[in-house]
Amino acid sequence: MPKLWNETIEAHRRAVRDAILDTAAELVAEHGVRSVTMSQIAEQAGIGRATLYKYFPDVEAILLVWHDRQITEHLRLLAEVRDEADGAGEQLEAVLKAFAHISRASRGHHGTELAAFLHRDERVVRAQRQLHGMVRDLLAEGVQSGDFRGDVTPDELATYCLHALTAAAALPSEEAADRLVTVTLSGLRGAHVASADGNPSASEHRHDSHRARHRAH
User: Fold this and answer.
1) CA angle, 198 as apex, 163 and 185 as ends, to 5°?
2) Distances (CA, A) of 116 to 18, 92, 96, 110
3) 46-92 per-position pLDDT tens digit
4) 162-179: per-residue pLDDT in tens?
5) Which pTM value belongs to this model?
């Protein structure tokens, strides 16, 4: 069989598969996991049931593949915005903004039957670890360059960031999500950025001297 013909068949299969994934996600978001059937998905996607079963055995299998596609795309986007920025400080800000926007865009799934089902997937745990590692590594670079505080470990700061920014799911606009990122970043820098070894910075010494003079008066 000619290569071009093979590529055409593969492209068609990908298109059918994507249509199935998108249709299933839309139906589940509207009706709930337990209410959606394979027949509904086939009808809505414009394919026969026999064709659908050639791709997936049941609704749960479809949703797991759909979620895996979402996770892969989100991680790709976060790596892309990181690589487009310069320096650990700008890279972290870009990653956190993208993560906040992703959290907000996914808010329809939070607290739902779909979310409960998907978060049993071990791929979620792996993706969370990968994201945590990305943020932690940028924070470690930022501590060394003096952009971020050094009195808290990068691992703890990464956990703080990601938990804080999941709140973006409840915010009314992207502008509000950006403001949440700004507040989160201010916590990473602290009132005064400590040195990488955890000792107070020159800025902190100045603040301490000012407080001492104020008490003397």
Assistant:
1) 35
2) 23, 29, 24, 8
3) 999 999 999 999 999 999 999 899 999 999 999 999 999 999 999 99
4) 999 999 999 999 999 999
5) 0.76
